[in-house]
Give the backbone structure.
Amino acid sequence: MAFLFAAKNVSAADPNASNTFLNGAIASVEERPQSQEINQQSSEQKSASQTAPATSTSATTTTTPATSTSATTSTPIAPAVSAAKPSGTATLEGVVPVRPLKVATGTKAKYGARTTTVVDPPDPPTSVVWMIGSFPPLDSKSVPIAKAPVMDQRGFQFRPCVMAVQTGTPVSFPNKDPMYHSVFSYSAARKFDLGRYRAGEEPDAVVFDKPGTVSLFCEIHEHMRAQIVVVDTPYFVVTDAKGNFKLPNLPAGSHTFHVWLGPKESFEKKIELKAGEIVKVDWSKLDELATKPK
């Protein structure tokens, strides 16, 4: 999986939105129903995952300047923190493709305990859009932990399933379930292992200081997975489940925007922005232009 997962500049109303190799148990979960019972068990075992770098393909489209600020967008699921301040009055809004979510449909018993619970459906899939440019990383020390983005473990799912953050951003991983979780990633952009912990034993926040897609897993619950997309820009947004997005306060000029559809699918578009204008785009039919897994 590559360039992964609410962003600082999502909207005026809310300034705060692999090749993966796992063991046979993770590979087998792709056909599971959304609501299921899983077994809590008792010995340790790790599944390795590794994100493959993504490539992007440039394409040309027509943009239509708008005179109205109305747009159909939804507040992104996850907050993101950025040190950037509004540097312009241009706005880009529109719609991009969203990939269907691969739903886990069962779980392979790993341990002997028989504590059972019901798995809630995962959050709907989303995409990520950001403006490419040369920007300094966020100083993680300037971000109060209380305001850091949060990747919850709730209903035995990661929530949100896709988060986007600027390089240098700390992310916390609270456990809100009645059982232990063990969050880890083997992705090149950020490798870490928080070990097992239960509700109320929240580990230190993890700082994501390198751009790329970070694939998340739980060592105990093999169906759980999520993506954190780390970007070198303060101008980014996570779409809603229909692919709608809005990026306000952009600097005027000619800029390239990267659209992340998944760890191995993305494309780029160049857009001319003028101060005071809202540029609307429809990139929802550009699936065939996105780079795809081989």
In short: Residues 265 and 292 are 5 Å apart (CA to CA). Residues 24-27 form the longest helix (4 residues). Confidence is low (pLDDT under 50) at residues 1-85, 111-115. DSSP finds one helix and 20 strands in the chain.
